[in-house]
Amino acid sequence: FEVLGHTKKEIKEKFGHLFEAFEYGVPPHGGIASGLDRLLAVLLNEPNIREVMAFPKTGDNRDLMMDAPSDVSKEQLEELGLKIVKKKK
Question: Which positions fall inside the Aminoacyl-tRNA synthetase class II (D/K/N) domain (predicted)?
Fold first, then answer.
């Protein structure tokens, strides 16, 4: 950010929320920067971005690499101290 001419104060004011969020970890990205798939699609003249995505999702939006979304086991709920409460109608 400093290379772009931002002061430390501007960085904290404008992007502080990002740095705070990243303190809790980053979303799964496989080490590939956001937007790289789009750049590759353009460079390769590929009309379908799914052909260049490192981790594409299926047609029903499932992630096969992470098996997500998936059911949560009772053991996982107990480990985290959580329980599922059905909503009253």
Answer: 1-58
DSSP β-bridge partners for residue 63: 68
Indicate if the pLDDT at residue 48 is higher than 80: yes
DSSP string, 26-84: PPP-TTPPTTHHHHHHHHTT-S-GGGT-SS---TT--BTTTTBS-PPPHHHHHHHT---
Counting the structural domains of the chain, the total is: 1
Q: What domain range includes position 58?
A: 8-80
Q: Which region, left, alpha or beta, applies to residue 35 given φ > 0 means left and ψ of -120 to 50 means alpha? A: left
